[in-house]
Amino acid sequence: MPSIRAPASQPWVTWGKAIASQVIVWHHLLIYGPLAPAMEAEWPVATGFVQAYGRFAVQVFLVAGGFLAARSLWPAPGAPRVTARHWAARVLARYRRLIPMLLLALAAAVAAAALARAWMQNADTPAAPTFVQLLAHALLLQDIVGQPALSAGVWYVSIDLQLFALLAALAALAHALARPTLPAAWRAAAGALPVIAGVAASLAYFNLRQDADMWAPYFLGAYGLGVLAAWGQNGQRRASATALLAALTALALLIDWRERIAIAGITALALLWQPWAAALTRSRLNAPMTWLARISYGVFLLHYPLSLAVNATVMHATPATPGWSLTGLLATWLLSLLCGWLAWRWLEARPARA
Fold first, then answer.
1. Whole-angstrom Cα distance, residue 154 to residue 19?
2. What is the pLDDT of residue 42?
3. Residue 39: what pLDDT?
4. For residues 242 and 246, what is the distance between their CA atoms, to the nearest angstrom?
5. How many CA atoms lie within 13 A of 127 on its CB side?
6. What is the DSSP letter of 10?
């Protein structure tokens, strides 16, 4: 979910990130904290729908992440841009891009949890962190080493780095095996096979194992569909890419129906074809969508600590009424947008300008 600028001709990346980020925020707002049950009692159908299905919006980010990573690391099957010599540097650069916003969010989460423990009683409030827990989060290893999460969404940052490293490793392998004497079509086929095999293995096996959801192979299916969509945007490959994406998605759903995989497949096809791209770009909504997509990483990481702080404040200082609960949730959402924008300007836009 880090802010990677989408090309002007790819509005579905921008709109997808913008909409998905807001769905995820409201999914968390309606699950965590004592303000959420008041909304569930007032609007049970709408609240229940967001609680049940809002988490599937993460699939949009997984597919878009693979799509954008491919354009950077491996823009075509026969043209990997990573060598074994430079793999570590590319992964480290990705880590350095991810970590500043994460550290800000973790500091905010620790402070907000301390306030929440003092002002309200709620089982979702994280306990005071240990040094080992903080170190594991800073290294993006918290789920792997079994440390409780300090904030919602930290798991995604860890998986994003793992997936990027895995794709970069596959690109380096393809680069090492490439032979200039081979015909271009053969080089492209040889380069595509590891990714296709990885996507198939993920969809047919790893994604079915709930105990594997802290590792990249669990999510490689959705991420790899984004990679294949990026490769298929060449006009000569679009039809075959469509057939491949549809076949992989159908195979996964025949093995075991998973809404999240269906959404990933639909998202990949949308990124491949970019339907109504010109209309979306000309739309009056394109500017706010672009803004929401730009700040989505900060909003995604900061909305949970802000939710903790607002929940604690509302529960401590106001009567327990649906009106105050709704006010608290709306305030959290608006604060998330504001703080996400400020964090983007501070941590992402400034280095980009430099």
1. 20
2. 80
3. 82
4. 6
5. 5
6. -
